[in-house]
Design brief:
The structure holds two protein chains of two kinds. Chain A is an all-alpha fold. Chain A has one domain. In chain A, about 85% of the residues lie in helices and about 0% in strands. The longest helix of chain A is centred in the last third of the chain and has 45 residues. Chain A is elongated, with a radius of gyration of 23 Å. Chain B is α/β, with parallel strands linked by helices. Helices cover about 40% and strands about 15% of the residues of chain B. Chain B is built from eight helices and seven strands; from the N terminus they run βαβαβαβαβαβααβα. In chain B, helix 5 packs parallel to helix 7 and helix 5 runs parallel beside helix 8. The longest helix of chain B has 20 residues. Chain B starts with a strand and ends in a 7-residue tail after the last helix. Classes of the chains: A mainly alpha, B alpha/beta. Chains A and B meet through helix 4 of A and strand 3 and helix 3 of B.
Amino acid sequence: MIETRLTLVAAVSVVFVLGAIIELIRRHRLQERYALLWIATGTVILVLSIWRQALHGFADLIGVAYPPSALFMVAGLFVFVVLLHYSTVLSRLSEQNKTLAQRLALLEERLGDRERPRRAA
Amino acid sequence: MRKAAVVPAFNEAGSIAGVVAEIRAADPELEVVVVDDGSTDATAELASCAGATVLRLPYNLGIGAAVQTGLQFASENDLAIAVQIDGDGQHDARELAQLLAPIISGEADIAVGTRFAGERLYRPSVARRIGIALFAGIVSIIVRQRVTDTTSGFRAMNRRGIRLFAADYPHDYPEVEATVLVFRHRLRMVEVPVAMRQRETGRSSITAFGSLYYMGKVSLALFVGLLRPRPTAG
């Protein structure tokens, strides 16, 4: 019975999260490229929580005695991948940000603009 | 032959004017380029009044990016020589001639002022000395040349050095990685013994907690750097 409840809770949560992701994309607050990994994560968890045999088969395969633990493991793994992906995105953004600031400083000097408005602290 | 002194400065209002004046007095031919790394005090204005060209970064990017900005300026203006001097008065402008000599003579592409020589005015703590020696040892092995001080930010370089660093320079705590970078690009580096002073104002960018990050970050960068393919000559 534990597993039936888990199936229900997992499936409902995932559907809710997937809905939220779609809504964020619809409102242009989340770009498709960053939503894809989340959607993949949600889909895999949804499939595994509904399709009992697949979860059991997978748990057997990796030697996990209690199938719901395997579900959490898969979810954790996906979240890890998503976070790692974001770290690379963050690194690229900070590199671009640095380059942009440097170009700004060089161009401003070339303009000889000594009276630009004071920047916010 | 145009040459510039690149002075990275972050909230150095207390010392920047003196540093600029000192550099100009030591070598009137040097164009002083102060890179204001998002200071919240009057660093930029004071540097400008003291006669320096000022590059103002819109926000604090860290020492690596600040130095790189100055070298990008040198690269864009096709300066023949650039010297990097800290804005806190730690580096003695009277040593400039010595530092520039191997660059002017063409003996080296990069000259690094090392502090473990000269008047011995600089006395780092035991922990810091161990850290410096450790990285100097590791870098010496990697580059197959004796390097005694990989933490010095007092450096002179010719066009090749300027071009290299303008294009590729580590983000923070850059000196150790930069040293390895120099050798990987087959540039010639020499160390020049110079006297350094205790800081006039401000604090070292390396704090107690920062040392841990410093060791970890630099070690990781060195290790991963070895896994990268050697850049082709040019």
